[in-house]
Amino acid sequence: MDTKELEKYTSKITVRNMENEDVEVVNYSPLTMMGKGRQGAVFQYSDDICIKIFGNEEDCEREHYALSLGQQTDLFPKVYAKGPLYIAMEIIRGVDLREYLQSQPLTEELSMKLIDLLVTFKEIGYERIDHHKRQIFILPEGNLKVIDVARTVWRDRVYPYPRKLLTSLGKENKEIFLSHVQALHPELYSEWTHYIEMEEQARQICQKIMTESTDKETLKNKSKKLLTTNEQKIYTGQLESLVHKVFKEEWVKAMLVQGYDPDKVMDTIEQHMEKLTSKETLKEKESKNTDTEKTEEDVKSKNKNNKEEKYSDKDGFLGYRNKGRISENDRYYGFRNERYSEYPIKEKENKNKNYGRKGKKNRR
After folding, report:
1. 190, 200, 207, 226: which one has the fewest Cβ atoms less than 10 Å from its Cβ?
2. Where is the composition biased (Basic residues) (predicted)?
């Protein structure tokens, strides 16, 4: 195919992507536009060949990659040439499924062909096993062909069932198609209906969450329970755990780079961590024992102080003194009754003794 002539025509055509709209086209070439969409516009090059011109190179690369995956099947148009912003491919002559179902019923035979289409998508490596009915064409001989397959590849997240196809069929044809699936493969039918139910539940949950009002002040007060830095003991434990985690991850990376067995590295790290943990536990026990000894010493010291209070040399008396009552000895030596704050004194009996003629010097 003469690519120089293709590039001559495509250089005179400008396609610009628009936000949420079909592309904007400026055509100064003699080619006739057959149609346009969100990604590009299609021009007739010959009776059997068309040129799809894209608004950006990424969409062009994506479409070309998707078409190349299916070139060994009869489901996709043949690709003849590719440029930075265009793909020359076979013209598909037929009726799209949307127009067909407006006048014809969805037969079991047609449903089987649609299921086979999805199987082919899976076999050639498409991420999205799904397609819209307006991009599926029924040829005069009854075979199916698909166009606009760029969105079937390079996808991160897709629906796990052919949601686009089922939705585009409409409510009535959707039920008919699912009944045909159930008759052919009951397990596949159960799986698809399960995902449909899960989608409905997810939508209901989403609507409920979006309509609920949250008491932010109450939640703010509750979220204080998640704080850990304001309590020294908890903060220390959390920080220690964080350091252990980082050490473990970085050590594994370093050992893997050097070619060590990851399982052995993990075992060695676990053993090291267990040793550290046992040492910390031993330290905690020793600390508890020390605290217990200190407590016992404090109790002994307190008992000693209480005992010293009982055995006081106050008022000149060395010995035990019962503070609750006054003994005869207390009365004699003049100890104060602490209950009444007085000094009851017992007068010493004055007995006249005869010391002889030497008087006081011989007195005992």
Report:
1. 226
2. 354-364
